[in-house]
Amino acid sequence: MKVAMGNDHAATDLKLEIMKYVEELGHEVINFGTDGYESCHYPEFGEKVGRAVAAGEADCGIVICGTGVGISIAANKVRGIRAGVCSDATTARLIKEHNNANILAFGARIVGPELAKDIVKAYLSAEFLGGRHKTRVDMFAQIENRNP
Ligand code: RB5
Fold first, then answer.
1. Ligand 1, atom 4: nearest CA belongs to which residue?
2. pLDDT at 105
3. Residue 8: CB within 6 Å of ligand 1?
């Protein structure tokens, strides 16, 4: 799979480690995040990853900031994006199986590297279950279409 990744300065070290891990799992990474440590603005990177995923340039995305929340909010502003913040592997599996989340988010100040790897592996190996979950996921697009 092609995985778009994005991060701010709070998550540079974890992003670099997770990038390597995602490649070891056999995926291709497109890096939209900063590789530096200077204070920068997470909405910029959340939007870049969101746009790449929504445009089909990547199959899914992984975004990381201090908490995972700010960057996921930014990604979720892009039409068609379903980003979820996870601090455990079970949630990471379920956001794919039930919510068909196309972006995984987590916080570099919240989870350590080993837990982050478990989270990433659980997300990337999960499949959307469809069925009753599809009815609900389709409702996200209906909400977007009701927006002015
Ligand atoms: C940056 O200090 C921090 O606010 C950011 O990484 C993130 O946690 C925002 O949600």
1. 66
2. 99
3. yes
* Atom 3, ligand 1: residue with shortest CA distance: 66
Nearest-angstrom CA–CA distance, 7 and 135: 32
Quick: pLDDT tens for 59-94. Answer: 999 999 999 999 999 999 999 999 999 999 999 999
Adjacency order of strands within the sheet including 60-65 = 28-31, 2-7, 60-65, 103-107, 83-85
Half-sphere exposure of residue 65: CA atoms within 13 angstroms, side-chain side? 22
Domain count, the chain: 1
Which residue numbers in the chain have pLDDT < 70?
none
Distance CA 48, CA 43 (A): 9
Q: Check if 10 has its Cβ closer than 6 Å to any atom of ligand 1.
A: yes
CATH number at residue 132: 3.40.1400.10
